[in-house]
Amino acid sequence: MISRRGTLFVVSAPSGAGKTTLCREMRLRLHDLAYSVSVTTRAPRPGEIRGSDFHFVSPSEFQAMLGRGELAEWATVHTNLYGTPAAPLEAALRGGRDVLLDIDTQGAAQLRARYPEAVLIFIVAPSMGELEQRLRERRSDGEHEIARRLERARDEVTLWRRYDYLIVNRDVKEAMEQLEAIIQAERCRVARLALTFPDLEVPN
Amino acid sequence: MISRRGTLFVVSAPSGAGKTTLCREMRLRLHDLAYSVSVTTRAPRPGEIRGSDFHFVSPSEFQAMLGRGELAEWATVHTNLYGTPAAPLEAALRGGRDVLLDIDTQGAAQLRARYPEAVLIFIVAPSMGELEQRLRERRSDGEHEIARRLERARDEVTLWRRYDYLIVNRDVKEAMEQLEAIIQAERCRVARLALTFPDLEVPN
Fold first, then answer.
1. Confidence of residue A204 (pLDDT cuts 50, 70, 90)
2. Where are the domains of chain B?
3. Which residues contact A158 (CB under 8 A, 6 or more apart)?
4. I want to staple A134 with a disulfide (CB 3.0 to 4.6 A). Which of A16, A194, B29, B69 is the partner?
5. Chain A to chain B Cβ contacts (< 8 Å)
6. What's the rounded Cα separation, in Å, for the pair A93 and A74?
7. Looking at domain A8-36+97-196, which of 3.40.50.300, 1.10.760.10, 3.40.50.2300, 3.30.56.10 is its CATH number?
8. Lowest-pLDDT choice from A28-32, A83-87, A200-204, B109-113
9. Which of B124, B199, B121 is nearest to B165 (CA)?
10. Which residues of A touch B178 (CB under 8 A)?
11. What distance in Å separates the CA atoms of residue B15 and residue B82, rounded to the nearest whole number?
């Protein structure tokens, strides 16, 4: 095997579009995919596992990490801070592993600036009505929070053109297949392979 | 459904890399894929179906089609002429159907020039030794023809950087999955969807 640099896959979506489920399932399906555990100042939701779903830290711990330049991206979402530790991410890419990141739109823009070769994937619900229904079914937010998430989704959905790929999540199985197809296809891209193979060498 | 323009997928490979089998199987798997039947002056091989595998024509008929500007690309391969009728290809793309073309490297370069948004896919055998073995197993060529095909393959394989995607055909099942992933992923590309959706409209 010729060692190649890993590819960074960044998945963003307005809340309720199904991003978290898709990323979790994709990690189960593609075992060679590395992922990054984000740092957040928000409180754990029921069922979330510390150090696996998120590193939960205090606002002052978060500020200290930022001050030491330890975050590849960070963002404020609904008054909470979220960030991606840079060191494990870059170690995985250098080691030739592809990385799947589940990141909001602000963080995705920072990652694009820092890693121009990253692959940005945007997931949307098939309609705003469907999005509202999913947020209600989740039962983790009150009316005020649901209204805020919907307003934010309406703004965020206009950002789809900044991404490389768009997945309309009508059906989880279909959306999973599209996400997997994007990852598999990018692994065949000549523009990426050409970074690995020396000038006159061919993979034959 | 918003009507979108179809995408042209062009598959090339040195002979023996498995291109014909892959394209045939992909047409069976993805029924919505249109394909083009090439015109050729070469003699039919055993099992080939007239009008389905190729339109078999005389050299003078071929020249007449060329003269009338009826071919989207054409090429000389092993003293035979091959070409793609332009009209059915363009009708399919205008109608929003994706098209899969099985075209040699000379023809692919002409298609790239004529349709810059086409997706070019290059398939190679895992090694020259493997390629030679496959050509022998095919039993359709004599020693001289096999030597000529191998020499040509050695030249052609260096052209992989002109393509968008590279599939190393180690295993037909794996190569099929990669080809299907490329087609599915390209259908999610924002650069293609942005041609379809009006400026401020979002697919939501």
1. very low
2. 8-36+97-196
3. B200, B202
4. A16
5. 96
6. 19
7. 3.40.50.300
8. A200-204
9. B121
10. 184-185, 188
11. 15
